[in-house]
Amino acid sequence: FRQVRRRGRWNGLLDRVRWLSGYTRSLRALGRAVTAGAQVDVWHAHDFAGLVAVGGSVTPGQALVYDVRDVVVETGTAARLPRPGRWAIRAYERRLMRRVDLVVAVNRPLAELIAARYGARSMIVVHNCPPRWSVPEPRPDLIRAATGIPPQAAVVLYHGLLGRSRGLDELLSAIVQPTLAGAHLVLLGYGELASSLAEQSHDPRF
């Protein structure tokens, strides 16, 4: 959406409207193809894109669950739309919500906001996180135990996607600086760079 560029304000605006319209039509076409003749009891629409795809195609007798992670008009591309665009998306979401049998929200504040905004008929909260960890005694040192890092040595932990544009090159440059000579960089995650990073770990610099 943000990459649509043309000379002139109105041409650019028209292109963005076409982009959004095409995106919506593609989702609806996908939903029609997926739901056509499908013998299922429940459709689970993951996030707003999933609701747009199947919300208008679910047949009577099939339940529809809307799994909400974000306030759609305040995140991602939608947050960068002009006010009329955000209003239109909210109105569309409200219309689709009339068909929803159950809303699943990732936390209670989000559930309360969705209920107040759209009047959801039924809602449950399923927290998007594991149960709180009860620390045993003595406290385990899992990272040092798995890597052989000495107990007194400092650990710099990166936890997340091992992909591009995640600051990993900067971390590798920083960890070889003399001021961090006593620290150990631990990369915990997965992604397209996992194998190359594992190979780099054998480099004498590291």
Task: Kindly describe this structure.
The chain is an alpha/beta fold and 206 residues long. The chain has helices spanning 9-35, 47-54, 76-79, 83-97, 108-118, 142-147, 168-175, 194-200; strands at residues 42-46, 63-68, 102-105, 123-125, 154-161, 183-190. The strands form two sheets. It has a four-stranded parallel sheet. A two-stranded parallel sheet has the order 5-6. α5 links the parallel β3 (102-105) and β4 (123-125). α1 packs across α2 (47-54). The longest helix is centred in the N-terminal third of the chain and has 27 residues, at 9-35. It is elongated.
List the helices and strands and how they pair.
Elements: H1 9-35, E1 42-46, H2 47-54, E2 63-68, H3 76-79, H4 83-97, E3 102-105, H5 108-118, E4 123-125, H6 142-147, E5 154-161, H7 168-175, E6 183-190, H8 194-200
Parallel strand pairs: 1-2, 2-3, 3-4, 5-6
Helix pairs in contact: 1-2
Task: Give a brief outline of the structure.
By secondary structure, this protein is of the alpha/beta class.
Per DSSP, the total helix count is: 8
Spatial strand sequence of the major β-sheet: 1-2-3-4
Shape: elongated
Distance between the termini: 41 Å
* Strand-pairing-aware structural class: alpha/beta
What Rg is obtained from the alpha carbons, in whole angstroms?
24 Å
Query: Any low-confidence stretches, pLDDT <50, length ≥5?
Result: none
What is the beta-strand fraction? 15-25%
Number of extended strands: 6
